[in-house]
Amino acid sequence: MKAGIHPDYHMIKVVMTDGTEYETRTTWGTAGQTMNLEIDPKSHPAWTGGNQQLMDRGGRLSKFNKRFGGLGL
């Protein structure tokens, strides 16, 4: 490895939205800093199965379903 071209790799504390904490190694910030998450796997709809809606803007969804509706299982 070349010296002086890699970022500093150090320990930080990560605080999740529910208050749980853990320590990890990262290049973010400086050693000993705390990263407070606003969105994490416990609160984000992509992981929790939140309300997902498909909006039909300009008939695109209808056009797609009309064209490829018969291809499903």
Summary of the model, kept short:
This protein is an alpha+beta fold and 73 residues long. It has helices at 45-48, 60-68; strands at residues 10-15, 21-26, 34-36.
Secondary structure: elements and pairs:
Elements: E1 10-15, E2 21-26, E3 34-36, H1 45-48, H2 60-68
Write up what this structure looks like:
The chain is an alpha+beta fold. It contains two helices and three strands. A three-stranded mixed β-sheet has the order 2-1-3, with no helix packed on it. A hairpin with a 5-residue loop joins strand 1 (10-15) and strand 2 (21-26). The protein is elongated, with a radius of gyration of 22 Å. The relative contact order is 0.15.
Percentage of residues in DSSP E strands: 15-25%
SSE series? EEEHH
How many β-strand runs? 3
- The strand line-up of the biggest sheet is 2-1-3
Return the structural class.
alpha+beta
Radius of gyration: 22 Å
User: Multimeric state of these chains?
Assistant: single chain
The biggest beta sheet is recorded as: 3 strands, mixed
Helix content: 10-25%
Distance from N terminus to C terminus (CA atoms, Å) equals: 52 Å
Low-confidence segments: none
Shape: elongated
Number of helices: 2
Average of per-residue pLDDT values: 83
